[in-house]
Structures are given as C-alpha cells and as structure tokens.
Amino acid sequence: MFEHEVGVWFGLNHPHVVRLFGACHVGTPLFACEYANNGSLEKYLRKHPNEMWQKLHEAALGVQYLHSRNIVHCDLKCNNIVVGGDNKAKLCWGLTLGDTGVFGQRPSELSTASDIYALGMCIVEALQIVEITTTNKQCCEPLPWGNLDNNVVKYRVARLKVLPSRPNVCKDNGLVKRMCAYDSKERIKISTVVDKLAVLARVRSPAVNETE
Predict the structure, then answer these.
(1) How far apart, in whole angstroms, are the C-alpha atoms of residue 179 and residue 53?
(2) Half-sphere CA count of 114, side-chain side, radius 13 A
C-alpha cells in the first residue's frame, strides 16, 4: 500500500496540493515534501484572519483537483491545510498517509461526499479561529465540536443529525448546511463549493454572513 500511495501522491501536480519530492520505505516511512513556510491554516488565520475565505477557496480548489483524479483526501481539517511560501493554501496529509487509506484501500463510507462534509467542518473551524482571534475570546480549542468526546459527537451526528453551533461571526450557515447534509446524496458538489467560496473570497470579510 505504501508504494501505491506514494506513487499516486508523486503524480499529483497542483498549486493547492503539497508536492511530494521523494519517499523512503526502509525502516520508518519518510516523505520529502514541499515545505509550508507559513504553517497550518489554523496558525495562519490567527495572524491573517481577513484572508479566511480566500484560503478556504484555495483549499477547495485542491479538493476539486483531487476529486477530478478520483482521489478522496479522507482527513480534511485545518491542520491538514497548510500555507506555502507562495502564500497559497495547500492540502497535505500530515501523519495520516498509510493509516487511513488516503489513496488506496478506503473504508466504503469514505467518498467525495465525505470530503465535502469534512471541508464544511473546516469552514466552521476556520470561523471559530477568526472569532477567537478578532474578539480575543477565551474559549476551548477551535475545533468544530470543541472538546466534546468523540462518542458524544458521533451520537449528535448519527442519531440527532445536528451540526455544531455556528460561530457568532457567521450569521448564516447555509453553505455549511448544504455541505454537511446528513444524507451524503444531498450534499453539494465540490464545483458548487468552489464557486460559492470564490464569491465569498471576493466580496466578504470574515465577520460577515457566510452565504444563503
């Protein structure tokens, strides 16, 4: 699986996906990747909250590229979106490659629709980061569900079919609702997400309504 995953990743070439330059499978697997000078999206937004929609749009372009290649990321979160020296947001895989079947063998429930859901949670997380940064609000870690236990989160999603509370800076979370519909067949496509985020990146500030 390692060689297959590396082969697929090595073949990716997109400005919003971290480039893989080499890998070694002897002993502990090692990857030589493009260096992300500006760190994770989470850290970047703490310094540049006004760039939130732009960076989310760039990340969505990366997801769109993966889906066009029939690749599911499987672990989208703000810590797996980085900002490179070219100031562009890029998708990476952190330590998950090989553990979750990012490219090859994947659990049947993981699909392009699950990536859409995860990207919607990235939007919620990013909004929480911006709210904390711009208001100096003291609260829990800016994860979509805060510090709730995983079992509680699973219950709320699977049984109650609810989304995490929206941050105060988000007056309307219509886009997130469409991305995170409980029925995966009802979730919007990545092309629609890209178009919506492009509009937000052009005309909105982080503290304005998300979308209708």
Answers:
(1) 16
(2) 13
Given a contact cutoff of 8 angstroms between Cβ atoms, the answer to whether 50 and 100 are in contact is: no
In the numeric block, the tokens 């079992």 are attached to: 151
Taken in order of first residue, the domains within the chain and their CATH numbers are 37-203 (1.10.510.10)
Q: What is the pLDDT of residues 132-161, one digit of tens each?
A: 888 876 555 555 555 555 555 554 555 545
CB-facing half-sphere around the CA of 149: CA atoms within 13 A: 3
- Backbone Cα Rg of the chain: 17
As beta bridge partners, residue 30 has 24
- Asked if 131 and 169 touch (Cβ cutoff 8 Å), the reply is yes
CB 102 within 8 A of CB 74: yes
